[in-house]
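User: I'm new to structure prediction. If I give you an amino acid sequence, what do you actually give back? Let's try with this one:
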Amino acid sequence: MLQTERLQFKPYLPEYRLALEKLCCENELVMKSTLKGRTFTKVEFESLINEEFIRTTKDAFGFWCVTDKADGSLVGISGIHPCHYQGDHAHEFGFILHQDYWGKGLATEIGNFWLTHAQNHLKLPKLVATVHPNNTASRNVLEKLGLNFISTFTAPERGKRCLYSKVVNS
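Assistant: Good question. You get back a string of structure tokens that encode the predicted 3D arrangement of the chain. For your 170 residues, that looks like this:
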């Protein structure tokens, strides 16, 4: 089982659907600075659930449901995906947390987990992360995790992004 001190990463289960739908389709505060830069439509949400979420613990790449170990509640989503930014093939990690969990060090905990997991289990050479330029809190987390700012670019589906990178295996 993938877990940190306070969190568990679980494959998508129907019991998380309502909380995920509220997060992705209704929570403008959270979604304005992530993925599409806005809430998802119902059709986009269905596609996200069907195509991007981890279904079994044997899967390595995709979104996991992140839950609180203490009470089992959905905290958000996180995962690693293959990506191609600025002509470079890499793997991107990211996290989307419900605002009730902001400011508690969970993003740093998640980031540390993915960096260690990518190095020790997935044997990836490096990880990248992207963030909206105005998302100062997430940019601070990435810098705290030791990622280096590479550049600002515009992604077709996501708008303006800051690209960060860290070598995890040389």
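You can read the tokens as a compact description of the fold. Here is one thing that stands out. The two ends are 27 Å apart (CA to CA).
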